[in-house]
Amino acid sequence: MYADAETIRRILTSTGETWAVVGLSNNEARAAHGVAGVLQRFGKRIVPVHPKAETVHGEQGYAALADIPFEVDVVDVFVNSSLAGPVADEAAAIGAKAVWFQLGVVDEEAYERTRAAGLDMVMDRCPAIEIPRLG
Question: Rounded to whole angstroms, how far apart are CA atoms 43 and 128?
Answer without folding.
Answer: 12
